[in-house]
Design goal:
The protein is mainly beta. The chain has helices spanning about 175-180, 195, 435-445, 495-500, and strands at about 25-30, 40, 50-65, 70-75, 85-90, 95-100, 130, 150-155, 165-170, 185-190, 205-215, 220-225, 240-245, 250, 250-255, 260-265, 275, 285-290, 290-300, 300-305, 310-315, 325-330, 330-340, 365-375, 380-385, 405-410, 420, 425-435, 450-455, 465-470, 470-480, 485-490, 500-505. Strands 11, 12, 13, 14, 16, 18, 19 and 21 form an eight-stranded mixed beta sheet that branches. A six-stranded mixed beta sheet has the order 1-15-23-22-17-20, with no helix packed on it. A six-stranded mixed beta sheet has the order 25-24-26-31-28-29, with no helix packed on it. Bound molecules: CU-O-CU linkage and copper (II) ion. Copper (II) ion binds near residues 493 and 501.
């Protein structure tokens, strides 16, 4: 454990790294390894049926984030960052034993003022949530169900859902921004026969791109910013100086002149991305958070908030021998090096993908008006973020009935866009509309100040995370299918989530 030794709580004396000083495109893009099946066990919901059983250990490792940097201290699932990739078949369950084998001390700055992270709690706590998974509540990774080093939790994932790119990450109350920042995230792909039938690029031609930013120091270590108040180090947002793809800064990928499918995840704490390709080349977006779109969309830019995913096809066939850059605005994320040798490409990009039947507003039995709130102190610093002005520990207020459809109209009077994620369900975005927050706070009335805006084309499939824009009311519609019980909904800006921008909700059985 050389590189981290002698430094306390991430307080290394090294200076901030200047990313422009790092050599570009010298590391090959790492591909997270597949999980290995350890054994099989009986499925909890189907006596007699054996399902795969995996054991994933959360461990500290030392691994460089760039060829020319010393190894960074990272907390991982299964020893890699991102963690190993699960591949599940729709309708076929699997069991995972998540084992906390982390050290007893955290290396990033805990704020003991935050609910759930008080000084009398163990420093190192972890619980895993598979983002976008339709799972029973006892396997969803409830934020208060954390475990300490030496303990493990076994969760069952029934995978009764359509093909989609899900991801797993830490969800421990009050510190999940730190655990995820330390490296605790990985991919969970659900496949099904409908998608198989489309003959999209697969195998070595289907590549995950997990994008996240971090502050790096010249000694190669992660640095998590602090407020300057020693007792209250929480900061409302983190925008790192380096953006990583699959855990490397400025990687390159050798590709053949043919079609590839890229499964893109924004795993950042707070950064939104506007992804573009050099030469204004276009992405063919084929899917959103929860699966395929009805038809491919040619887009010059893909926007992803934290937690969102985009499924895209890139066709390099007319770029043999060229190099292409994937960028976020002016920051070059990675390079594609297209080979010269002509290859046969038998994969397809069908013009019709998967029907996404529009959910009818009339099918909703309830419309909930919910707000996003920021509390500021006397000097204007944000001190707490809330959903519906209600802290986490207050009694549950959202209790949808199992199998009922609801519309949630989320009001955002703040100055920032917040990516709101609801566990268990998939939803559709109905619309967004500008309104006057002042009228609402003073009279409780909604006064619209702009036209109804439909979802962007790239958001018009099944979603589980939605950008709720400043000064707008964003409406989503969803059916609470699956399981009765306690789940959560929250902002996916992890700093917000850890500071009260998360609420429990409960699916109740029909009376
Ligand atoms: Cu991706 Cu509740 O989280
Ligand atoms: Cu937020």
């Amino acid at each position: 454990m050389a590189a981290g030794a002698g430094t306390l709580a991430g307080a290394s004396a090294a200076a901030q790294l200047d990313p422009n000083k790092l050599a570009k495109f010298v590391d090959p893009l790492p591909i997270p390894p597949p999980v290995r099946s350890r054994s099989t066990r009986v499925a909890p919901d189907r006596p007699g049926k054996q399902v795969p059983y995996y054991r994933i250990e959360m461990t500290e490792i030392q691994s460089p984030l760039h060829r020319d940097l010393p190894p960074a201290r990272l907390w991982t699932y299964g020893g890699s960052f991102p963690g190993p990739t699960f591949t599940a078949r729709s309708g076929e369950g699997l069991l995972v034993e998540w084992a906390n084998q982390l050290p007893n001390r955290h290396f990033l700055p805990i704020d003991h003022h935050l609910h759930g992270a008080e000084a009398n709690r163990p420093e190192v706590r972890a619980v895993v949530h598979v983002h976008g998974a339709k799972v029973p509540p006892q396997s969803d990774g409830y934020p208060e169900e954390w475990i300490t080093p030496g303990k493990s939790l076994t969760y069952y994932y029934p995978n009764q859902q359509e093909a989609a790119l899900l991801w797993y990450h830490d969800h421990a109350m009050g510190i999940n921004r730190l655990n995820i920042y330390a490296g605790m995230a990985g991919l969970y792909i659900v496949r099904d026969s409908f998608e198989d039938g489309l003959n999209l690029p697969s195998g070595g031609y289907e590549i995950p791109l997990v994008i996240c930013d971090r502050f790096l120091k010249t000694d190669g270590q992660l640095d998590y910013p602090v407020s300057g108040m020693p007792d209250a180090p929480w900061v409302p947002e983190v925008f790192g100086n380096v953006m990583l793809v699959n855990g490397k800064a400025f990687p390159y990928l050798d590709v053949q002149p043919r079609k590839y499918r890229f499964r893109i995840l924004n795993a950042s704490n707070g950064r939104f991305y506007n992804l573009t390709l050099s030469n204004r080349e276009r992405f063919q977006q084929i899917g959103t958070d929860q699966g395929l779109l009805p038809a491919p969309l040619a887009l010059e830019m893909i926007t992803l908030a934290p937690g969102e995913r985009a499924d895209v096809v890139l066709d390099f066939s007319s770029h043999a021998g060229e190099q292409m850059i994937l960028a976020n605005e002016t920051f070059q994320l990675m390079q594609f090096r297209v080979g010269r040798a002509r290859v046969q490409d038998t994969s397809a990009l069908p013009t019709a993908l998967r029907p996404v039947p529009r959910m009818e507003e009339a099918s909703a039995v309830e419309t909930r008006i919910l707000s996003i709130d920021e509390l500021k102190n006397a000097v204007g610093d944000t001190i707490t973020m809330l959903l519906n002005n209600t802290p986490w520990h207050m009694p549950v207020t959202e209790k949808p009935v199992l199998n009922s459809t609801e519309i949630w109209a989320i009001l955002n009077p703040t100055e920032d866009s917040h990516p709101i994620h609801i566990h268990l369900v998939r939803f559709q975005i109905l619309d967004r509309r500008r309104y006057d927050p002042f009228t609402y706070t003073t009279t409780g009335k909604i006064r619209f100040t702009g036209p109804v805006e439909p979802p962007e084309p790239g958001e018009s499939g099944w979603k589980d995370t939605v950008r709720v824009h400043a000064g707008m009311i964003t409406r989503i519609i969803m059916k609470f299918e699956g399981y009765p019980g306690r789940y959560v909904w929250h902002c996916h800006v992890l700093e917000h989530e850890d500071n009260e921008m998360m609420r429990p909700y409960e699916i109740v059985k029909p009376a």
